[in-house]
Amino acid sequence: MFDSGVGGLSVLRHIRAQLPHEHLLYFADSGFAPYGDKPESVVAERSLAVAGFLVANGAKALVVACNTATVAAIKVLRAHYPDMPLVGVEPGLKPAAAATRNGKVGVLATKVTIAGAKFLLLRDQISAASTAQFLLQGCPGLVDQIELGDLGSAQIRTLLERYVVPLLDQGADTLVLGCTHYPFVLATLGQVIAAATSRDIVLIDTGDAVARQLARLLGAAGLLNQGNAAGAVPDLSRAAAGATGAESAAGSHVAVTAAGMGAAPTLQGYTSASATALSLAFANLLGIDAPVREVVI
């Protein structure tokens, strides 16, 4: 799985919880971050390169743990890997439309995500089906600040106030966290909301849905690690992408070696920037110690 940086760790934690016997590769493309201020064509090209690296290192499935990369590259990745289970992430508009009480949903995301044709089509479809009104808010600079690692910084609070308070002032009672980085600042986000309104605000994060969808696709393709037979079998009957915010594709069966199926689960980190920084992110955000390598792609 890959993201422009450490944001995808918010998805990785759900995948590790639901699929504890799988071998995981995580690529933090921090040297190329942020994706959100780059043209879609550039993000698509970069996503292909990173995906190629992960496949070359043994990936049997791909998770695009980045909303921006999903918008920009999911089609080209599917075309390039038609026989591989592939899951992307997208803002949880459908669950948000179901959760809102007054029909007003705020969407926090990168500028590329909310400007993407795929996202806008999804918004229009769900608006027509539910009458929900989606208030779109790009959040320039927020990913950059989260990548720095000080999740309670004054800079992050200032940015959240700038982006969230106008949505609340417009009446939003539900907020979609449309970037995998944003769940890591929930504490500060909660403080900003509490200072701005006494209303109950629902927050939508689709990381758990992505993990469920990956489990479903691996199960359908016969690719689940055999270690799952001993316990912790994921629930493969849950709703799929359209109802959850997971964006997916699955092709024909992909061969997996016996060693890959039976060995103890591992987590390997890769980054296009600092291995030390990614190691600290693993420790600080997930509480784990994993080997990390710096690579050039």
From TrEMBL:
It catalyses: L-glutamate = D-glutamate. Pfam families: Asp_Glu_race. SUPFAM superfamilies: Aspartate/glutamate racemase (SSF53681). One of its GO terms (molecular function) is glutamate racemase activity. PROSITE patterns: ASP_GLU_RACEMASE_1, ASP_GLU_RACEMASE_2. Substrate binds at D3, S4, Y35, G36, N67, T68, T180, H181. The keyword Cell wall biogenesis/degradation applies. Pathway: Cell wall biogenesis; peptidoglycan biosynthesis. The active site is at C66, C179. It is an enzyme of class 5 (isomerase). The keyword Cell wall biogenesis/degradation applies. Keywords: Cell shape, Cell wall biogenesis/degradation, Isomerase, Peptidoglycan synthesis. Its EC number is 5.1.1.3. Belongs to the aspartate/glutamate racemases family. Provides the (R)-glutamate required for cell wall biosynthesis. HAMAP family: Glu_racemase. This is Glutamate racemase. It comes from Massilia antarctica. The gene is murI.
